[in-house]
Amino acid sequence: MKATLLDAVHTRFDHVETEPLYAVATMLDPRYKGKFFTNATNLDQAKEALKVEVMKMEQELKTMPSGEGVAEAETARQTPGMEAGSSTSSLGSFFDEILEESCAASPSEQQITPGALFQLESYLSEPPAGRKSNPFHYWRDNQSRLPALAATASKFLSAPCTSVESERLFSTASLIIDEHRSRLTPEHLEVLVFVRKNLPIMLGLQSGGANN
Q1: Of 46, 91, 98, 125, which has the fewest Cβ atoms less than 10 A away?
Q2: Dist CA 8 CA 28 (whole Å)
Q3: What distance in Å separates the CA atoms of residue 22 and residue 168, rounded to the nearest whole number?
Q4: Which of 122, 116, 97 shows the shortest CA–CA distance to 55?
Q5: Quick check: 192 and 178 in contact, CB under 8 A?
Q6: What is the DSSP string of 122-165?
Q7: Using one digit for the tens of pLDDT, what is the confidence trace for 37-85?
Q8: Quick check: helix, strand or coil at residue 12?
Q9: Residue-wise over 97-128: b if at least 16 C-beta within 10 A, else e?
Q10: Tell me: the pLDDT tens digits for 122-143?
Q11: What helix, strand, coil percent values describe the chain, rounded to 5?
């Protein structure tokens, strides 16, 4: 049983360290930074991804009126997947943003300013904060010293607004498993849950494309 659970964990989470979203969020948590990456390659990729995000944030801060801080920068930034002036989002817009992010120039093709580079090196050279410390308090206290990093942290350390979708996912699994399906294997259950949650999305995209 332990071997099966361990194999499932590796199957689902082995790629997490190479995902820029999770890697940057980990680097921006002052309790962890780069201390828990499993190998040097993943750590170097995480540092490069963080550098790219800091460069993007620095450009955004430069375009804002003087005197506006991290909170204003976060508010002014358009929510991912939302069109300007619109209150609705679409799966297609998320795909477009993912594609845009993947096509972004690498750090070698851009230039990080000495000030932002100093912030980054200063932050990473400091020892991690205590395990029980609050990362939001850290960035609040160091906002004036590390403005570009603090603004980037406000973007990547934001909590999900709701747990409704995860609860619905558990409910879907409980509806599929019942006493009449006692021979249903975990593999088949996973496939059924995937189809149940994703088929309506795919059908919606196909119908939308047909209407267009």
Answers
A1: 125
A2: 28
A3: 23
A4: 116
A5: no
A6: HHHHSPPPPTTS-HHHHHHHTTTTSHHHHHHHHHHSPPPS-SHH
A7: 989 999 999 999 999 999 988 888 878 765 555 544 444 344 343 333 4
A8: helix
A9: eeeeeeeeeebeeeebeeebeebbeebeeeee
A10: 999 999 998 889 999 999 999 9
A11: 65, 0, 35
Number of neighbours of residue 74 by Cβ within 10 angstroms: 14
DSSP bridge pairs for 82: 89
Token reading at 54: 């800091």
Q: CA 39, 148, 54 angle in degrees (round to 5)?
A: 45
Helix (H/G/I), strand (E/B), else coil: 92: helix
- Which H or E run contains 21? helix 20-27
3-state SS record for 42-80: HHHHHHHHHHHHHHHHHHHHHCCCCCCCHHHHHHHCCCC
